[in-house]
Amino acid sequence: MAQEKTEEFEKAQGVEKPGKNKAMEAGQYFDFFEHEAGMFNTVGPKAREIIEQDCKITSACTARPYPLVVDSAKGSVIRDIDGREYIDLVAGIAVMNAGYSNPEVKAAISAQLEKMTHCGYGDFFAEPPVKLAKKLSELSGYSKVFYCNSGTEAVEAAIKLAFWKTKRQGLISFYNSFHGRTLGSLSLTCSKARQKEHFPALRTAHSHYAYCYRCPFKLEYPSCGIECAKELENLIFRRELSPMDTAAVFVEPVQGEGGYIVPPPEFHREVRQICTDNDVLLVADEVQAGCFRTGPFLAMENFEVRAEISCFAKALGGGLPLGAMLADREIMDWPQGVHSNTFGGNLLASAASLASLEFLEKENIEDRVKELGSQMKQRLGELQENFPCIGDVRGLGLMVGVEIVKPDKSIDPIRRDRILREAFKEGILLLPCGDSVIRFSPPLVITDEELDSGLEKFQKALKKAGI
Ligand SMILES: Cc1ncc(COP(=O)(O)O)c(C=O)c1O
Question: Where is coiled-coil annotated (predicted)?
Fold first, then answer.
């Protein structure tokens, strides 16, 4: 493969110098899959045809790492349009926690479909969103629920609630964070400069997250004393954004898009304490880590920390679009008309969500996630011994990241993407995150056999990627 072409592809994926890049046009993805990566030899003629049409007609702003054209799915296995099967080790980006075509979720959707799909829940009342709210309250301990349709909307709602509640307009989030792409949540997002280029922002300061593998302070845990969390107070509040102007600190329990970064437990406790001491709200963005992905329903429970507000989406809808912002009554006490939307609490999505959560609870999923997560980390740790390009294996529950590095431990996104494409050819679906990380976030119901087979294929992909 021509080196320049590979680099061009990397650029299109967002690993580029801000301001100096030229985005790859959608049609160029087609050419890349066709000529350079040989990916169309893997998929069939129908996939090729659909991708050709897609590239002509849909916006080029989304980045696709390989030419998968899905058709149907069951459990953890996706069948593409030409009949080729893949083990999905990313669950449709941490969405299909209860598995594809889960019979209980399907039955709940079908039953609701027979009755009514949409009612304008912002204007009327209905039973499914109320039943779901009770379940969310039971699982989370929060007493109030606000519904929307996506992660970015849940974060926007939290920004507005924090502004409304505190009458302040400053925000804080962390480097490498991802909170969404609409303009409010994008102000918090600090993952890739490309995502923010040319867009205006709300007043937001960024602080360092506990990325221990690449400590921003070049310190070692635990002797570091969690210097990164203390930066909030020692630097941000003193020099950049007064707590008197700060409505809330937004934090992901485990950073997702930024590289599957798991902080030590003291990090969140320290951040919590600083927020309390300075009378600033803490918002947990549980969009990717929540809904049992890391074991407990709230990923923050792993750290014994409670935020005033928590945001959910992705897995919440059981495969349908649904977001939610949760808080206690004393926080979510804004009056009628301050915030709303058309589709939040959609009847089908609420029915799917409730069925999915009930299914996961019934399966005792927290224990299963912890067990499978530690098995997965152990297996990937064993691979690390034989593949020096694996610099770090980290994770919480079934949110596991593998950081790909050069011999000097610097990032190696080109090799990372080569591994991803080889993995696709082997029949597993993986996705990139961070600068040089491969993420594993399979359906929580993945079987032992599927996981074994998936990891064997990953090992083959590592070999084929020429390491
Ligand atoms: C932690 C986190 N917050 C917010 C979002 C945005 O969610 P959505 O894509 O549904 O807008 C994401 C998406 O990846 C996420 O991982």
Answer: none
Q: Is residue 94 part of a domain?
A: no
In a domain, 96, yes or no: no
The number of distinct structural domains making up the chain is: 2
Query: Scanning the structure block, which residue is given the tokens 């707590």?
Result: 243
Helix (H) or strand (E) holding 227: helix 227-231
Q: Return the ligand 1 atom nearest residue 152 CA.
A: 11
pLDDT above 60 for 467: no
Q: Does the pLDDT value for residue 15 go beyond 60? A: no
Task: Label residue 18 exposed, middle or buried (CB < 10 Å: 0-12, 13-18, 19+).
Answer: exposed
Query: What 3-state DSSP class applies to 71?
Result: strand
User: Which SS3 state, helix, strand or coil, does residue 323 take?
Assistant: strand
Q: Specify the 3-state DSSP secondary structure of 257.
A: coil
| Same-domain pairing of 26 and 127 | no
What does the mean pLDDT of the chain come to? 94
Q: What are phi and psi of 429, to 5 degrees?
A: -105, 120
- Cα of 44 from ligand 1 centre, angstroms: 31
Q: Are residues 326 and 421 in the same domain?
A: no
- The answer to whether position 371 is within a domain reads yes
> Strand locations in 218-322, DSSP E?
246-251, 281-285, 309-312
Domain boundary among 317, 336, 362: 362
Q: What is the pLDDT of residues 366-390, one digit of tens each?
A: 999 999 999 999 999 999 999 999 9
Which atom of ligand 1 is found nearest the CA of 314?
10
Looking at the structure, do residues 327 and 459 belong to the same domain, yes or no? no
Do 372 and 356 sit in the same domain of this protein? no
Asked, for residue 95, whether it belongs to a domain, the answer is no
Question: In the listed set 362, 382, 401, which residue is the last one of a domain according to the structure?
Answer: 362
Cα–Cα distance for residue pair 19/16, rounded to 1 Å: 9
Sequence-separated (6 or more) residues with CB below 8 Å from residue 150: 180, 313, 321, 323
- Matching residue, tokens 């597993």: 428
What span, in angstroms and rounded, lies between the C-alpha atoms of 184 and 203? Answer: 10
- Is 358 found in the same domain as 248? yes
**Gap between the Cα atoms of 115 and 128, Å rounded:** 12
> CA 99 to CA 75: how far, in whole Å?
4
Higher pLDDT, 9 or 42: 42
Nearest-angstrom CA–CA distance, 400 and 394: 6
**Residue of 288, 316, 320 best suited for mutating to test ligand 1, as the one with most atoms within 8 Å of CB:** 288
- Which pLDDT value is given to residue 146? 98
Which CATH number do you get for residue 246? 3.40.640.10
Kindly state if the Cβ of 417 falls inside 6 Å of ligand 1. Answer: no
- Tell whether omega for the bond before 243 is within 30 degrees of 0, i.e. cis: no
